[in-house]
Amino acid sequence: MTDNHDHDQAPEPSDPFALPAPDTVPRLPVTFRPTRTRVAVYAVSSVLIATLVVVALILPDTGPTAWSIPERTGFAAIGPLISAGLYLLARPRIVADEQGVTVVNTVRTQHLEWAQIVRVNLRPGDPWVLLDLDSGEVLPAMGIQASGGKAARRAAGELRALVDEHTRTERDD
Fold first, then answer.
1. Read out DSSP for the chain?
2. Which end of the chain is least crowded, N or C, by CB within 10 Å?
3. Could you tell me if 109 and 102 are in contact, meaning their C-beta atoms sit under 8 angstroms apart?
4. Which residues pair with 145 in a beta bridge?
5. Shortest CA distance to 114 belongs to which of 156, 167, 159, 161?
6. What is the pTM of this model?
7. Dist. CA 173–CA 150, nearest whole Å
8. Distance (Å, rounded) from C-alpha 126 to C-alpha 98?
9. Residue 120's beta-bridge partner residues?
10. For residue 129, which of 161, 106, 98, 157 has the smallest C-alpha distance?
11. What pLDDT digit, counting tens, does each position of 36-55 carry?
C-alpha cells in the first residue's frame, strides 16, 4: 500500500499573490496606516527641529561672525519647513467606511465607491497596495506599505475582504 503524504503539505494556492484571509472582516469604519513610516517621520522631524533651535540659540551674537536675531530665527525656521515636507510622507492612509474607501496618498486624496474597486493587490516587489479599479486604472494606496511585512499583508487581506464583502453580487460575478 502506498502512503500518501500530500496532506502534510499546504495546498498550492490558486492565486500566487494570495493575501491572508482575515479571521473576521474588520468592522467599519477602519483606517489603515503605515506605522513605521509615521514613527520615523515624526522622530526625524522632532530631532531636526530641536537641533536647529538649539544651534540657533548658541550661534554667536557678538564679534565678527555674529548672527542677528532675524538670521537666527530664519535658521531655526528651516526645521519646521523641512518637517512640513516630511509630513507628506506620514500622511498616507486608507479609510474604509460604509460609503466606500478614501485613499489618502502624499498629495492626493481620492474617494472610491466600493463598486469601483475590482481587486486589492500587494504582490512581491510592490512598494504598497495597488487597487485595480473598474475604469481599468490602477490606484496606488500608500496607506498599506509592503515594508510593514506581515502586518502589511494582513492589512491588505483585511482590505481585500472588505472589498469582497461590499462588492458581492447576488450571483457573485
1. -PPP-GGGSPPPPSSTTPPPPPSSPPPSSEEE--HHHHHHHHHHHHHHHHHHHHHHHHS--SSTT---HHHHHHHHHHHHHHHHHHHHHH--EEEEETTEEEEE-SS-EEEEEGGGEEEEE--TT-SEEEEEETTS-EEEEEEEEGGGTHHHHHHHHHHHHHHHHHH--SS--
2. N
3. yes
4. 128
5. 167
6. 0.77
7. 30
8. 28
9. 131
10. 157
11. 899 999 999 999 999 999 99
Cα angle: 68, vertex 70, 74; to 5 degrees: 120
Single-letter amino acid, residue 117: I
